[in-house]
Amino acid sequence: MSLCGIDEAGRGPIAGPLSVAGAIFINEIEELDDSKKLSEKKREELFDKIKENCHYHIVFKSAKEIDERGISACLKESIKEIMETLKDKCDEFLMDGNTSFGIDTLQHLIKADATIKEVSAASILAKVSRDKYMNEIAPKYKEYDFDKHKGYGTKAHVEAIKKYGRSDEHRVTFRLKALGEEKGSGVQKSLF
């Protein structure tokens, strides 16, 4: 049997979904790395190769789900869904990061996305899937330029929120210091 690498994209943005992916090699793939170290063009090339050469599963959690249940709960649910879906294809699961979210059969390793090829593949699947989603919704939310910053809290994005308020793709529990929002009950994190 083999290893299933798991990684996420979109834990920190103030808009858009969380994307979590799991990948198990059927065939070896060259040139894999942490998705953050690769160009957008290279990630997209590898995305198709990974889909052709891996068993994989990708889970999305919407901004609304993140607001309702919290980012950690959404991550844990996504990991469990991946593990359940791919359990017959591998005998080990490895998540990038410093926690196994209380899941006994999940191993974790910091910087696994840069050192373990299966986790690199999952990192690319999660990132490209999420970026594609943000590009697809961008025309509907023209004032926010989601295709440029992918929902992360750039200065331009924060300025757009100041001007237009939040859309239904924004995480309302992610408070922004730049907007004078204070950390309160149910708030996920404080940015800027």
UniProtKB/TrEMBL annotation:
The UniProt keywords, alphabetically, are:
Cytoplasm, Endonuclease, Hydrolase, Manganese, Metal-binding, Nuclease
Cite the Pfam families for this sequence: RNase_HII
GO BP: DNA replication, removal of RNA primer; mismatch repair
Q: Which residues bind a divalent metal cation?
A: 7-8, 96
Q: What is its EC number?
A: 3.1.26.4
Q: How is the cofactor bound?
A: Manganese or magnesium. Binds 1 divalent metal ion per monomer in the absence of substrate. May bind a second metal ion after substrate binding.
Concerning InterPro entries, the annotation shows:
RNase_HII (IPR022898), RNase_HII/HIII (IPR001352), RNase_HII/HIII_dom (IPR024567), RNaseH-like_sf (IPR012337), RNaseH_sf (IPR036397)
Chemical reaction(s) catalysed: Endonucleolytic cleavage to 5'-phosphomonoester
Required cofactor(s):
Mn(2+); Mg(2+)
Give the matching HAMAP family. Answer: RNase_HII_B
Instruction: Please state what the protein is called.
Output: Ribonuclease HII
Species of provenance: Malaciobacter pacificus
Q: What is the lineage of its organism?
A: Bacteria, Pseudomonadati, Campylobacterota, Epsilonproteobacteria, Campylobacterales
Q: Which gene encodes it?
A: rnhB
